[in-house]
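Example for tutorial group B:
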C-alpha cells in the first residue's frame, strides 16, 4: 500500500504516513483516490480549517432553478437538484425553487440545477459550484479525502443514471425522449435529441457490454458505498452531515422515488445501509 500511495500524490513526512494509514483503514479509499487522481490529474493535500461547515449559521436566500419535475426533469438532473437542495438546507439557506423549462440553457456549463444567490447575477451550475460557494462563505477548506469521496460518488452515480436514461433503449424511448424534447418545437427538438443521444452514447455506451454488465458494476459501486456508510448515522461525521451525505441522499433517493427501473430500485434496497441512510436524511431534511 505504501508503494502505491507514493505514486498517487507527491506527499512528504507525516502526510505520507497519514495517507498510508488511511489507505489501510478504508478498503475503497485506494480506488477512490486513484479515480480522483486520474480524472483530475492533480491532487493537493489540504487540511480542514478550524472553522467547520457545521458552524455555519442561517444564510441568505437563494433561488434554485430546475426544469419541470413532472414533465421535463431527467433522473440525473433530478438527483443533482435534490443533492444541492439538501446541501443548502443542511447549511440553513432559504431556498426558493423555480421550475423553468429553459433552465438547461441558463447553465453556463450544462450542469443543473442553476442556483443564484440574493444580490448576485452570477449563476452557480451543478453541485460542485454550489459546494465551492458555501465553502467560501464559511471559510471552509475541504480535505483531500472529502474531495476524493465527493468526486467518486458523484461520478459513479451520474454515470449510472445517464447510462440508464440514454443507453438503455426501453427507457430512452419511453422516458428520456419525451422529457428531453418537452416544450421544444420540431425540428429543433429532433436535432437536439439526436445530438445529445449520440454524445452520451459515445462516452458511456462503451463502458458496459450490456445492461447486465452495467447492473453488475453498479452493484459493486453500491457495495463500496455501503461499507463507507457503515453503522454511523451520517457518512462522514456523526454530528453534522456533510456534502458527501447530500450527494448520496440526492442520487439514491432519486432512484428510489422515480422507480425508473425495478432493478435499480432493488439494488438500492438490497444495500440496507444505503436505504436506511436515505430515510435518516429524509427525516432531518425533508424534501
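The residue assignment follows.
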Amino acid at each position: 500500500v505504501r508503494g502505491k500511495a507514493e505514486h498517487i500524490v507527491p506527499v512528504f513526512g507525516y502526510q505520507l504516513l497519514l495517507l498510508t494509514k488511511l489507505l489501510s483503514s478504508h478498503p475503497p479509499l485506494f480506488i477512490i483516490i486513484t479515480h480522483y487522481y486520474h480524472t483530475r490529474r492533480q491532487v493537493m493535500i489540504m487540511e480542514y480549517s478550524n472553522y467547520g461547515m457545521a458552524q455555519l449559521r442561517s444564510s441568505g436566500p437563494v433561488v434554485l432553478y430546475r426544469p419541470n419535475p413532472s414533465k421535463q426533469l431527467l433522473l440525473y438532473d433530478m438527483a443533482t437538484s435534490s443533492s444541492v437542495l439538501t446541501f443548502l438546507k443542511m447549511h440553513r439557506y432559504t431556498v426558493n425553487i423555480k421550475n423553468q423549462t429553459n433552465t438547461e440553457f441558463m447553465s453556463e456549463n450544462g450542469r443543473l440545477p442553476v442556483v443564484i444567490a440574493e444580490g448576485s447575477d452570477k449563476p452557480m451550475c451543478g453541485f460542485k459550484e454550489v459546494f465551492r460557494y458555501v465553502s467560501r462563505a464559511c471559510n471552509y477548506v475541504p480535505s483531500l479525502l472529502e474531495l476524493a469521496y465527493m468526486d467518486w460518488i458523484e461520478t459513479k452515480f451520474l454515470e449510472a443514471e445517464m447510462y440508464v436514461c440514454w443507453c438503455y433503449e426501453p427507457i430512452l424511448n419511453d422516458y428520456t425522449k419525451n422529457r428531453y424534447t418537452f416544450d421544444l418545437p420540431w425540428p429543433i427538438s429532433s436535432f437536439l435529441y439526436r445530438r445529445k443521444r449520440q454524445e452520451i452514447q459515445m462516452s458511456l455506451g462503451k463502458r458496459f457490454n450490456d445492461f447486465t454488465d452495467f447492473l453488475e458494476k453498479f452493484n459493486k459501486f453500491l457495495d463500496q458505498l455501503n461499507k463507507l456508510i457503515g453503522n454511523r448515522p451520517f457518512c462522514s461525521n456523526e454530528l453534522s452531515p456533510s456534502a458527501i451525505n447530500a450527494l448520496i441522499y440526492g442520487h439514491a433517493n432519486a432512484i428510489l422515488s422515480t422507480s425508473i427501473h425495478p432493478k435499480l430500485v432493488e439494488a438500492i434496497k438490497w444495500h440496507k445501509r444505503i436505504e436506511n441512510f436515505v430515510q435518516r436524511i429524509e427525516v432531518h431534511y425533508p424534501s
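The first helix runs from residue 2 to 6. Compare this with the pattern of hydrophobic and polar residues in the output above.
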